[in-house]
Fold:
Amino acid sequence: MGFILRRLGFYLIAFWASITLNFMLPRLMPGDPVTRMLSRSQQRLDPQQIESLQRLLGVEGGPWWQEYFGYLGRVLTGDFGVSISRFPTPVSDVIAAQLPWTLLLGGVSLVIAVIIGNLLGILAAWRRGGILDSVTPPLLVFIGSFPYFWLAMGALYVFGVTLGWSPLRHAFSVGMTPSWDLAFIADVASHVLLPALSIVLVSIGGWMLGMRNTMITTNAEDYILMAEAKGLRPRRIMFNYAARNALLPSVTNIGMSLGFIVGGALLTEVVFAYPGVGYQLLAAVQGLDYPLMQGLFLTITAAVLLANLLVDLVYVRLDPRVRVS
Amino acid sequence: MKPVLDIEELTVEYVSDERSVRGADRVSFHIAPGEILGLAGESGSGKSTVAHSIMRLLKDPARITHGVIRFDGEDVLSMSADELRSWRWREVAMVFQSAMNSLNPVMRIGDQLADVFTTHEGLGKREALRRAAELLELVRIPADRVNSYPHQLSGGQRQRVVIAMASALRPRLLILDEPTTALDVVVQQEILAQIQELQAELGFAVLFITHDMSLMLEMSDRIGVMYAGRLVELAPAEALRRRPLHPYTQALMGAFPPISGPRVKLTGLSEGVRFTEIGDLEDTGGGHFVAPTGSSHLEREVLR
Structure:
């Protein structure tokens, strides 16, 4: 319990530090973001908007600590200001509209890649030198080293355009209204499948190789020999003794990837015209939409920290040795 | 009495592309029920290779190329995978060298003990755990330790857990592969006393492997000495202590100080001397077998 509280404290401090950095960055940059935006938009902003911008970016004047605490308070209440490129939508609304799709796409592809990749790795290491072990890793690495956008476009062309098995764009069919009924869920699933699989295809090799290598090290441990001498069934030795231990390094990687999901999959979103944070971030950068950028950065930071906290919690459950230290 | 384990001409080769090395070379011996047979020899002499062969735990590139291993008349080398699995631990159990690493670090020791019962006796989880707690008490570890993880136990306790695990199914043969190597001397004694106590109670035969001759003389009924994969001498412990016949055994006996008696100069193991072409064991009477030592020149070298 003390361990968890200590970790929690650490992440809170890290989060505070990232908010502070977010506050400082615009100030450290040469010039004033508001002026740059004004010059870009050629006076098309109305005074109220300028004021909101200034307030958001802390150029409203007054002592720095006043600005700082004002900013802190706004961020903590989820008020990131108003987006410039999508005026007058609040930044939090823009993010809230994109985030579910990013989580869906990233989540689905991560879960599939992790499960299948690790399973393949376990099996390959268990029958080391077998067919699975000698054919799959080189093949997956070969596929994984293609430029991703080329693979994605190829997949879209073959399965979407030529075979017609998959929709060509968007997260759901035009004309449907989001709801929780079965038809809509099925429609969303059919849209997410191909983009997700394209990500799985390039990422699965890494998971498999990582798992295979740790498994091979684990298989040489004495407790595996002991388990074998005990006459346990191979399946039990493979999963409860070998894989259970080999999984530990993988958990850290899963956590990291989980956090970075929120950053979005830019290329996937572009190729499949799928909504998501990645494309939004690109648009924000191109449109000098500082409030949106800051909001997105903060969301990504929060997600990475949250994922790390999650990993810590899971790790404590998985590895009893962590609990004491 | 019919031997519980009978090994004939066991030959194990470590095969590689360029050359293969014989880890064990035509090794023959038997163990009677309830007997403690010690297997001595320096590192790499093939002790562990023999032990692993008995349970068929050898991994590539090791291969049993010749010989017969009979357990209670049954041919171990021709058992199918399923037969082997149910035979292991039920009839022959083993305690490995590294007390620290024999237990799965992420499983409670109760579950690891219970594994034996659920696999071999088809017990339910609850009943298996109850038996696990009993086993722990047998080796004087509090029963509530079933919920502990291996890292929460000391090295000696861990080895006790392994010993408890090994006696779970009351096997007829227990192989101890340097069971006390990683432990300090005091704990060593405790562990050995534990084993002797269990042996007196359960009556299993023991194959005891170590390079610690004094420990071995103390524990064993009979002792076999291995050198370069060959068995060079096999004799009752008392006979070996009084009159070792093979020069290598003599060197081995000269390499540790006697606790009592007059001071003697310690001699190192046969540095620079290699025995080659070691012949089969010859009976010298009284159950004392020794490999013929080809040249008297070698013998002198070692004894000097």
Q: What stands out?
A: Chain B has one domain: 5-106+149-303.
